[in-house]
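Example record

One chain of 557 residues, shown exactly as stored in the release files.
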Amino acid sequence: MKKRSTITLQLLTLGVLLWLVLYPNSYIFVQSFIQAGQLTLANYREFLTNPSELEGLWNSLWISVWSVVLSGLIGVPLAFLFHRFDFPGRKIFAALASLPVLLPPLVGVISFLFLYGESGIFSRSLQHWLGWREPLFSFRGVGAILFVHAYTMYVYFYMFVSAGLRRLDFALIEAAQSLGASRSRIFFLITLRQLTPSLVGASLLTFMTSMASFSAPYIFGGGIRVLALQIYNSKLNGDLEMAMVETVILTLTSIVFLFLLQRHEGTSKYRSAGKGAQQPITAVIHPVKRLLAGATGIVALLFLLLPHLTLFLISFAQDGTWTIEILPPRYTFDNYRRLFSDSRFLEPVINSLQMATMATLANFGFAIVAAHLIVRRRVRGRVLMNSLILLPWALPGTVLALSLASTFNQHNPWQARVLLVGTYWLLPLAYFIRNIPVVVRAVQASFEQFDPSLEEAARSLGGTWLYSMRRVVLPMVLPGALAGSLLAFVTALGEFVTSIVIYTIHNRPISIEILAQLRQFNFGSAAAYSVFLVLLIGAAFVLSEKYLSDAGQRAAS
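Predicted structure tokens for this chain:
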């Protein structure tokens, strides 16, 4: 690639990041200090002296801490159980342990509402069996939020620790055993230390996800104040000045923990200097232990499957018929029939597919260029580019939505502002910005994994830059790029937090339609939309897995 072309691409890439990522958040930051046209700290003084605002910040922090603890208590033992011990059904249980990934945030919350809510199947069943006049418990408040968080976020610990166990250097454990170290000493001084980067990464990712959580507090909060919900309520009440202050506070909190995540991500403190011999899987031979392991796996599997099965069952319930009964009294196929035959019901599905596809294609093209500039060309300013690429990862959905809505609410070319509020295009733009770090990091990893000499060889044999990109570079990075793009696509497909702040009647996505049906007590229709969304996400994963496997084989050959 010629130097002039490299500079042009770098300027375009940096321009997109400065305009769409840095500028809106900088605008919010500056506006948070303005009151009645004057620079002042009055907005922050009001925040720091308002008990409701401080309660929202405190609740967000301690709910996030407990979400980390509970998710770790579930995810870490499951990772050890399914990846260190061999018993009947282990591989099936290990694969199904990631089932919560298929549930977008709002869909997961709704499944818990149908299952554990005050009028849910589990609650009504207990009430009936015990003969009580009132439900045994009310699935609301902090306990309900933590329950939902633990179910949906333990996957981070399970996946991180599972990957860490596969990289564990068993040679160190063997050496410690030969020196007479006890099992507990080996676990705490060797195993746990080697898993520290995985545990820290999962903890910080869980903390950030919990801080940004909106769906669970919105549905089950019962008046509990959290910062992400406070931003939405402040905007809804027209108090934009306080919404901006809340946005800055939440953003800074998330950025601090993103910094900690980056700091520990590449740590070498606990890395092994050996070749990383893997520990053989321990076969469970004792009959009682095999029974206990299998029973634990079955119980965990049933717990994981219950929300999915509940959604599927309720999706056939006739709207308006399920009130105080344990199970819906009437069932029908009309919910799915309307979904595929009535244009009004199909429109949210088409909107979501269109917007997610547009945003993902933009992410794919942008990621290829940005990763090539950073990894292969090593251009000046790549540290700034990397920081801007990672910034949306630290922005909760409410923060991103408010920053875009505040920045692009008028047409003012001199201030680099375009009127997008109220148009179709603001929401797919938000999806694009939201998923920049996911796709770029995936492509960067692919670039770093293949030898640049392959590209240089193609150029030295007379191939043009375009030819080497098409025949050498793209086939090598395509598996990683498609994996990142898939994650971006399914995230955009089920996005709720950003959508609820800036959607319009013309681009109403599936998640908003699910909420609308729920508010009208059309539980069957809401569940049918949810099941269809889960099936779309599952199909995307299955197809991409097959394509990625074929692409990997082609690249290897």
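Notes: The mean pLDDT is 81.
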